Amino acid sequence: MSFQASVSKLQPPVRDLVLTATRDAKELVGRTEADEKEVIGWIDKTSQGNLVTENNLKDLDTILIPKTYLATNYLTAADIALYGTLHPIVAKLQSSEYYAVPSVTRYFDHVQAENIVRTSAGEAFKVILLDIKNAPAPERKVEAPKKKEKAPKAAATPDAPAMPTEPATPASEPADKGQKKEKKEKKKDAAAAEGGKDTGKKAGGKAATKAPAADEGEPVPSMIDLRVGHIVDIMKHPDADGLYVEQIDIGEETGPRTVVSGLVNYIPIDQMRDKYLVAVCNLKPANMRGVKSFAMVLCATSKEGKEGGIELIQPPPGSKPGDRIYFEGAEFENAIPLTQLNPKKKIFETIQPGFITLDTKEAAWVNPVTKVVHKIRSEKGVCVAPTLVGASLS
């Protein structure tokens, strides 16, 4: 089927919008033959009513979770067709209704703000002001179960032999001070007993490698949970001129995480859209001017300071959202990161001064004691900064 034939099946107002937009912007049809085929396919689904149903936007919301654009990684006629079809439906929704389909809301608001859409839209497609600012914060359902798992471990096995693994799991405070003191003494005794044992014989040494990843001992890089992320949506913070609010897909079933980054004055928004990056995923969530941020974007800052430039650290080619990023070295590569970094222990702040980009622009952590270089990588290759050498990472 040709592009014109697929567009002709759209409802008249939507068809006219698509034809107007593509008249002077031929790239909207698709930059390659493969892209054009995708565009035609999605337009056909839209015209058949397979994507948009007034009484059920949930299926479309699921489709749009990982997508910035519908058919390709740039705006096409397929997005304009879907936007036009959604417009009368979104116009009728109350805020509680469009909050229930956040991916549809995010996508619709993003497409309606595109210049080509605004210049092509007539009276039938006026801007719909969506109160995204007051949207309820997304629920992070992954943390609560993990907290529940920790409590039983701390309260289990009162006898000393099981206690060496207990420091790895924070325990809830006992109500009775006497019990607390007794428990402390048991831990000390168990630790002392453990010190006299040959720990190398324990399950191939696995018990020893789990302890650092359980918030004990000196901070090490492998405590930090680094993963590949993909920006699927981005906007300026409604209440802070220097902040972006991003939706970053890191491969979780719960959908993209909301992340706030102070990059407005350093990286243009067009250079942030659709980017793959490295995300720090186990920082404690923080409120940033009224928006809760659930991760941090890892960036390189020029050795001359912020004025010298800031760049996103790039994962290796072929990376997918959620790919594990780790530090080279036998002591780090197979270690399990902490579920959440304890802000009081300043783990990230202790490790961060050793983050740098090498002469090859590769990202690495340099051990301040041994001076050994541990490159930051995934199975697909090493992470890099686009241009900065000797840059600090944060």
TrEMBL record:
Residues 187-201 have a biased composition (Basic and acidic residues). GO terms for cellular component: methionyl glutamyl tRNA synthetase complex. It comes from the Eukaryota. Residues 220-326 form the TRNA-binding domain. Residues 153-173, 205-214 have a biased composition (Low complexity). Keywords: RNA-binding, tRNA-binding. Residues 139-221 are annotated as: Disordered. The keyword tRNA-binding applies. InterPro entries: Arc1-like_N, Glutathione-S-Trfase_C_sf, NA-bd_OB-fold, tRNA-bd_dom, Tyrosine-tRNA_ligase_regulator. Coiled coil: none annotated. One of its GO terms (molecular function) is tRNA binding. This is Nucleic acid-binding protein. It comes from Pholiota conissans.
